[in-house]
Amino acid sequence: MRPRDAWIGWHDERRRRRLAFVANNVRFLLLPHRTVPNLGSAALSRVLARLSDDWQARYEHPILIVSTFVDPDRFQGTVYQASGWTELGRTKGHGRQARDFYENHGKPKRLFVRELAPGDRRNLQAAQLKQALAPVEAKVPVRCTLKVAELESLSSQFRRVTDHRKVSDNRSTA
To answer: CB under 8 Å to 120, separation ≥6 — which residues?
Structure first.
C-alpha cells in the first residue's frame, strides 16, 4: 500500500500506529439487471456518510480514510470516480496471504482512496493526533524493530550475565 501511504504522507512507524483509522472497502457490486441511473453513487455516498459513526459504535474509534481496489479486467471504477475518490495508480499485483506476507498473483488492481471528511488526511500526517483520536494510537503496542541477528546477539549477551536470583550452592545454612 505504498501509494496510499505516500498519498497520506506518513512513514512506516506512523502508519503502524495509525492504520486503525483506515478501512478497506472490500466489495461494492451493483447487479447490472437491477440498476438505475446514479444508484452506485447514491448508495456509496450513504454508506460513506455513516461509516465512521458505525465504526465508532462497533470498534470505539472513527475511520478517517477509505481505500478500495478495482480489478481493471472486470470493472471500470466509474462509481468511485463519480463519488470523488482519488485514483492513486495500480498496485504491483500482490495479495496478502498472511498478516505480513504477500504473494505475487500477477493481477495489478487500480487503487482508489477517499477522506471521509476534509482534513482527515492532514490529521493522519500530523506529528500529534487530535486529542479525540490520540487514545486509539496510544493503544497500539510497542513493536520491536531489531533484526533477527540483533536479537540473537542480544540473547547471547544476556546468557553471559550472572543471574543473582538463583540460589548459590555455596550459601551457608543457619
So the answer is: 21, 64, 65
